[in-house]
Amino acid sequence: MAEAALREGGDRSVPALGASSHRSDDAVATYGLTKRFGHQVAVDSVELRVPRGAVYGFLGPNGSGKTTTIRMLLGLIMPTAGRHDLLGEPFQEKAGAILPRVGALCEGPAFHPYLSGRANLARLDAADRTADPRTVKRRIDAALERVGLTAAAGKRYRAYSLGMRQRLAIAAALLTPRDLLILDEPTNGLDPQGTREVRALVSGLAAEGATVMLSTHLLSEVEQICTHVGVMHQGKLVTQGSLAQLRARAQRRVRVETERPEAAAETLTALGLAEVTTGPGTAEGLLGELAPEKIVATLVHDDVPVRGFGVVAPDLEDMFVELTGEGFDVSA
Ligand SMILES: Nc1ncnc2c1ncn2[C@@H]1O[C@H](COP(=O)(O)OP(=O)(O)OP(=O)(O)O)[C@@H](O)[C@H]1O
C-alpha cells in the first residue's frame, strides 16, 4: 500500500504547518501539534482533521501518542509546538468559550465511592461555573437517562460495574449539551457487555448530531462505530480519512498460481502491473485499472499454465499493518 497515496487523499487539503491565518470548519483541526517530554517526541507535527458529524476513531498501539494528543486538545497540557482549533475556533485564544461545548472523557472525573451516581453528578455540576444551577435536576435526569442509568441512579458508585462507571463518566460529560465529545479509550477495561453499552451510547450520541472523537487500540471498534479514522504510530499520524475512502484506496492485488512463476511475472510486467513479485508457485502484482479477464487471457496466450487466479483486496488491517509495521488487536 502506498503510504503517500493514503496521505495525499485525505478528506481535504492539509494546510502548511503553522498556517496561523487558516481557520477550519472541522470540529477538530490541529496544525503541527507537537509534544516533547525531554528528548522524547511523544506527538510529532500531527495534523488532525475531524469533520463535523464524524465519529472519528483515533487508532494506535499503546504509547503511540493518543492520550498526549487528547490532553493537548483539551488544554490539559501545553503543546511544545503547533496549535489547534476546536469547533472552528482557535483554542489558545478562545478556550473559555469553546470548552463548555466540549464533553471529555480523559483521566476520568473523580467520583466519590460512597455517593450515588446522581449525587456524584450533582457534585460535578456544582463545580462547573458555566452550568446553570436552575436546570440542574432536569439536566442530571437527562444525562442519566441518556446513558441508561436512571434505574441505578440512587445506587452508590462503589456498587457500579465497570460499564456503569464508564457510562456515569460519559453522563458527566453530557451534563450540558455538547457539540463535540472527546473520549480517551472509552471501552478500555470493560467486559463485552460494558463495551457494547458504551459503543451503543457513542453511536446514539453521534446520531443525535454530536461529533465524536474517541481513541482506541482496537481496529474492530473503529470498524464497528466509526465513520473516520486517524492512525497514530510512534507519535506520528500516519494516515487519516473516512473509512470508505481508505477502503476504496486499498489497492487490489492479482495472484497467479502457476508452475512457471517467472513466466507469469513477465506477462504481468508486460501488461503494466506494478510491484510484481514471485514466490514458490505464485506471481503477484497490483491490479491497477486492468480487467482481470484481460490478464487471464494474456497469461493463456503466453502459454503460462494457470492453476489458480485471484484478486485480493487488502482489508483495513492489512493496510494499517503495512503503514505501522504492527498488528492491531482485532478482538472484542
Ligand atoms: N508526562 C509524561 N512524561 C514523560 N513521558 C510521557 C508522559 N506522558 C506520556 N509520555 C510518553 O509519551 C509517549 C506517548 O504516550 P501516550 O500516553 O500519549 O500514548 P497512547 O497512545 O495514549 O498510549 P496508551 O494507550 O498506552 O495510553 C509514551 O512513550 C509515553 O511514555
From TrEMBL:
One of its GO terms (molecular function) is ATP hydrolysis activity. Residues 1-21 are annotated as: Disordered. Keywords: ATP-binding, Nucleotide-binding, Transport. It holds the Pfam family ABC_tran. It comes from the Bacteria. Residues 1-11 have a biased composition (Basic and acidic residues). Residues 28-259 form the ABC transporter domain. PROSITE patterns: ABC_TRANSPORTER_1 (PS00211), ABC_TRANSPORTER_2 (PS50893). InterPro entries: AAA+_ATPase (IPR003593), ABC_transporter-like_ATP-bd (IPR003439), ABC_transporter-like_CS (IPR017871), P-loop_NTPase (IPR027417). Belongs to the ABC transporter superfamily. This is ABC transporter ATP-binding protein. It comes from Virgisporangium aliadipatigenens.
